[in-house]
Design goal:
homodimer, 282 residues, alpha/beta, globular
Chain lengths: 282, 282
């Protein structure tokens, strides 16, 4: 999907958070923010939001020399998720429909998104997660279940650190050959290999990097290995708004699991902000 | 007070709302937003937020040719406030401390601020106003009461359309010579003479324009008549964040009545967002 002018405040907000993590000197930070603002003034709004964010965060990394400004934030939310997950695993273990409840948990975990909200607190995450199994799920779960059960190979595209811990129970329930893909390089709080290992995903699936530094899945940026898996998998499951924004027009069926977090996505999907969505584009 | 980098997303958000009101052609709107974004990239952050907003809205008016993009929004909130005010007047009439309750009402009315929030709904305003008399008032009301009772001349600086209706009961209770000042020209949803007349303020006080097109009180921009009153009044009461941002360092005592609505003001005042504040800078 294309970006809109309404994406600008959010992109600048992201830049302010990223620079507050990566610059100690306020004058250097101001200089970097001015450069980002100039970049946005001339940006191509026909590109997707994650393409714009990719270019912005490349510029910010070049200005600051800090490769991974969100490392501390990612560690904090991984730790929080690992602290919270046992109680959710217990619910899924006792559930009459573990796959459904694991999907609910994975979507609820998508609340941990520094791209959509600055200064997300641990209390906010805990409150949102406590409603994981009560929040209405928008989408055709029965059709999703049938796809899962019929798939011999599944590619699961993760979104953010912390969130990836809550993907664990769902990934463990998927049948056949399951590969979990993470971003190739740090960008915002998106999960990389390090986070997948922290979340223990390697005990349930193969993990690969997508080879890209975008907060979404821009196929033109991804590695050949990733693209080959993406094209050949029986089912692709993609978490989060960034993957939806970059893959909703990609031509092959993808099942998207995400929480609607911004007015632009709400407008595009016709779903209210806050909706827990399971969308399939076929 | 000076601006901060954190003001940028808010200034762009304001521009998006203003241009959605003033441009029918999306390409022309995009061009105007790109120009604003470039202006912000080079702006002087030592200026106050209303100085930056003044320059941005001047540029937007020049681009669109629309002098008053918020006219419909202002009319809508004036009408809502006029519909709601009888029940609040009844409370103040029966109150054991009418001045205190009129101050509470005036501060609660400061929720009607298109500068601080895009797409403010009538429901949000009504919900906020219903809590007008319950919300804790931060500040030294007894000292404010003494200043009011000792003043022979009071200058009351209004903030927004709609809100100005809720200033009415307080203005009516002020003793001595009371002059109410509004913005000289339309900017965002700030009240001008037209709104003061719609609110019926002319039955209780003299009304003057401050001569400026800024969403605050930039003395260097104001008319001689206004500056003379500002310097000579026994008491100046100023509504809203914009007046606080421009007058908190002005050198003469001012009593500020406003609702804390953004993290920058929260940081500057040490008060949480949502606080109903009565601050005196002497």
């Amino acid at each position: 999907m294309k970006s809109t002018l309404e994406c600008i405040p959010c992109l600048i907000r992201q830049s302010l958070e990223a620079t507050s993590c990566s610059f100690k000197d306020e004058a250097l930070r101001e200089n970097a923010v001015r450069k980002v603002t100039r970049l946005i003034a001339d940006i191509d709004f026909r590109s997707t939001p994650p393409e714009m964010a990719r270019d912005i965060h490349r510029l910010l990394r070049a200005e600051s020399g800090v490769a991974d400004p969100y490392r501390q934030i990612k560690d904090r939310f991984n730790a929080l998720a690992l602290k919270l997950i046992p109680r959710f695993r217990a619910v899924i273990r006792e559930s009459a429909d573990p796959l459904l409840d694991a999907v609910r948990l994975a979507i609820a975990g998508n609340v941990i998104d520094s791209g959509a909200k600055t200064s997300l607190s641990e209390d906010e995450v805990e409150t949102a997660m406590d409603r994981a199994f009560e929040t209405e799920l928008h989408g055709d779960f029965d059709s999703f279940r049938a796809k899962v059960l019929n798939a011999d190979s599944i590619l699961y595209l993760t979104d953010n650190a912390g969130e990836i811990v809550f993907d664990g129970p769902l990934i463990e329930l998927l049948p056949g050959n399951v590969t979990v893909a993470v971003r190739g390089f740090p960008v915002i709080n998106d999960a990389t290999i390090e986070d997948a290992l922290t979340a223990g995903i390697d005990s349930a699936a193969d993990i690969i990097s997508n080879g890209s530094d975008a907060p979404g899945t821009i196929l033109a940026d991804c590695s050949e290995e990733f693209i080959s898996l993406f094209q050949s998998a029986d089912l692709v499951i993609a978490k989060g708004q960034g993957n939806y924004e970059t893959l909703s027009d990609c031509g092959r069926p993808v099942s998207f699991l995400f929480k609607v977090k911004c007015p632009v996505i709400a407008d595009h999907t016709g779903l209210k902000p806050g909706t827990h969505a399971l969308l399939s584009d076929n």
